[in-house]
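We close this part of the discussion by returning to an individual protein. Part of our work consisted of pairing the sequence of a single chain with a tokenised description of its backbone. No coordinates are needed to read the tokens, only the vocabulary itself. The amino acid sequence and the backbone structure tokens for this protein are reproduced below:
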Amino acid sequence: MTTGDVARALGICQETVYRHLHSGRLGAEWTGTRWNIRPADAYYWAQDIWDEGRCNMRPPSSIEHYCEWFNVS
């Protein structure tokens, strides 16, 4: 998943995803020109921030639905 995929799936700002990538809170792999985020990593990260309740977002299960709908792996 790209940072845009994660942001769209969760209904959050892409800048939030970048902040968590740069802080090391969200794991991803840099491949030349973009971040590649494994759906499982995105889900567990989303669950963590959902549990904190400090971010207005869709439920973490939205990641799974997004991956199914757009055939993202």
